[in-house]
Each structure stands twice: as C-alpha cells, then as structure tokens.
Amino acid sequence: MNPKSAIAALLLLPSFSYAATVLTTPPELNNKSYVLMDYETGQILASKSENEKLAPASMTKMMTSYIIEQKLLKGELTEDEKVRMNESAWCKGSSTESCMYVPLNGTATVLEMLRGIIIQSGNDASKAMAEHISGNEGSFAYAMNQEAKRIGMTNTNFINATGMPADGHYSTAKDMALLAKHIIHDSSKYYPIYSQKEFTFNGIKQGNRNALLYTDPSVDGLKTGHTDEAGFCLTTSSKRGPMRLISVIFGAPSMNERANQTRSLLAWGYSNFETVSVQPANQVLAKAKVYFGKDNDVQIGLAENFNVTMPKGQANNIKTQVTVQPNLNAPLKQGQVVGKLTATLDGKVIAEKPLVALKAVEEAGFFSRMIDHIKMFFSNLF
C-alpha cells in the first residue's frame, strides 16, 4: 500500500463515544436529519437520524463536482477543455430549477462548468458535464455510485447528476459529510471555489445560495439543496484555528432555518470541542529492524501532522501507541507506510495515522541478504 492510499484509508474512523466526558446537550433542530462531523478524525460529534435515506436535492452536485475535480487532477480533463451544451442538458429558463444559462449548442470550459455547478448550482452545467464525461447522464450516475462506494458512502444511490427528484435517488447526512470531507482533502486545489460568493457567465451574475458565506468568515463551503420533496438542505464546512467542522442539514423548513440550524450546530461544536496536536510530522518516533538492507534499521515517523479533536480540557489525557509492521524487508522507499500511531482517550481509539519510513533503505548485497535469511530463520524458531 502506498502512503497516499494508507492515509486515505485512515481518513475516517468509527464514531467515538464521549460518554465519559460531560458535554452540553446538542441543539434540538427542526429538520429530518443532521450530522456534525469533525474533519480531522471523521468523528460524529452530534447527529439525528444520520443514516436515514433522504432526498439530497442539489447537494447531489457535490459528487458531480468531486468527480470533475478528480479527473482534472488526474489529467483526464483539462481546465480549458470546451464542453458543449446539448439540448438534453440545456436549461430553458424554467423558474423551477437553477441554471448556469449556457446557450443551446454553446460551450463553456470545464473550469467554468465546475464554477457553474458549485456556485450557481447549475443543473444544465451538471448534465452537460455528465454527458461530456460519460456520454449520458445515466452512465455518469453509475460512475457517481461507484465513486460513492469507493469512499465509503454506504447508504447512497444516485440516479442523476443534479439531485432533481427521482425514485431511488437518496443519501444520508453521514454520507454527505463523508463526501464533503473527501472534497476538502482530495480536491484541495479546487476547494476554494466552494467559498466563492458569486459567478458571472453569459453576462448573468448569480450569487452563492449558501447564506453563511456572507455572515461567517470561518465558513468556506460547501453546497445547498432544495426541492419540495427534500426541503431545505445544506452541507457546510467551517474552520476556526486548527479545527474544522462539517455540518449537514436535511429537510429544514426554510432557507433561513437551514442557515440558523447550521450556525447552532457549529456554535455547539466549537464550544464543546477543541483540536490539539498529538505529534508533528517528520520527527523520529521509533526505529525498526530491517532485513536485507544496507542499513540495519529504519527511522519511523509521521508524514503529516497528527491532530485530534476532543472535548475541551481532555488534551492531557491522550495516550499514544506506536505499532510497527513485523519483519520489514528492504528495499524501503522514503514515505513507505510501515506502521501506525494510535491515539486513545478513556481507553478508546479516537484517531490513527500511518507511520512511514523517514529515509529510504536500499537493498544489501547478496551475502548480506543470505546472512539475514539465516537470522530470520532462527528467529522464527523461537
């Protein structure tokens, strides 16, 4: 497993219970479902019906934009690549849906389409990109579901790229929070688009529908949604100091309510929790025996800073444990995952980070390797 894959695998851990710590009660919110997640660890800090399958409305477009961003980062799309607006995707100016207003048979670049999807919530841009990438929206929805499975969205099924009502099109507050976490982490180059307050295309300026972008400087994304079926929905990310929180609201009764409920959740989270540093990156935490190498051991540490979020006042109670893979064999690449660092609170795991080789270890010559084979043989006897 390469370092990036290992880090991705550790992005989320199971929800951690803070039963041993006294917290104030989360706010009671008039909605269908909500989640407040810590970005750093993936811990669910507060929730209601977090796994209930509900219509996500235009929050669906987070997966559409995520796929576009990942294809841009992989070189499968380019930012200035032209995308045609076919009649099947064209927005005819209906007041019942949000549009970017790309003219019929006109074009926009991939980057313009991405902004149209994120900032303007353009259904036309979403469908045009789906057709551009997969040939038709149905095939793109299949790709959306494959990507959802890959990142661990276990209670989600997409029928289209927009979130327009459709039988069998659903997600959950927990899954949407997970998707937001991956957008922030995996698409960091394009994540600043989610905080942009307006975008002008074809002479039409439209504002971002996320009201918190205008009132809370700590909020930098992500996506609103609304249909009669879904109610008013909002996925939000906020960063204050080292701490980032993700909130998801499904089914609030109004636009103002979804914003106010999000404010309440964020205020509760920041009042009760804090993010602290457990261990900085690139420091030697252990040395491990290496077989068949020019060096007999390897220095082990973190590739990334290790921060965790916990109830305020509990930082001194964190314990850490280093676990190293047995029988490390050369060659080892710098940055290769060789173990993990686990942080616990009240005896329960709250976060893990992969430990990596801080320096490469080259393979030794033939005779040195033969000696190590003999050593391993006898060590395995006892």
Q: Could you describe the 3D structure shown?
A:
With 382 residues, the protein is α+β, with helices and mostly antiparallel strands. It contains 9 helices and 17 strands. The chain has helices spanning 3-9, 61-74, 110-118, 123-134, 137-150, 173-186, 212-215, 255-272, 366-379; strands spanning 33-38, 44-48, 82-84, 107-109, 198-201, 204-207, 219-227, 231-240, 243-252, 273-279, 286-291, 297-302, 306-311, 319-324, 328-329, 337-345, 348-357. The strands form 5 sheets. Strands 14-16-17-12-11-15 form a 6-stranded mixed β-sheet. The chain has a 5-stranded antiparallel β-sheet with strand order 2-1-9-8-7, with helices on both faces. Strand 1 (33-38) and strand 2 (44-48) form a beta hairpin. The radius of gyration is 24 Å and the shape is globular. The two termini are 29 Å apart. The model is unreliable at 1-20 (pLDDT under 50).
Main sheet record: 6 strands, mixed
Instruction: Give, in spatial order, the strands making up the sheet with the most strands.
Output: 14-16-17-12-11-15
What global shape is seen? globular
Structural class: alpha+beta
Q: Which stretches of 5+ consecutive residues score pLDDT under 50?
A: 1-20
Q: What radius of gyration results from the CA coordinates?
A: 24 Å
Percent range for helical residues? 25-40%
Distance between the termini: 29 Å
Residue fraction in strands:
25-35%
Number of strands: 17
Counting H and I runs of at least 4 residues, what is the number of helices? 9
Rounded mean pLDDT score: 89
How do the helices and strands follow one another from N- to C-terminus? HEEHEEHHHHEEHEEEHEEEEEEEEH
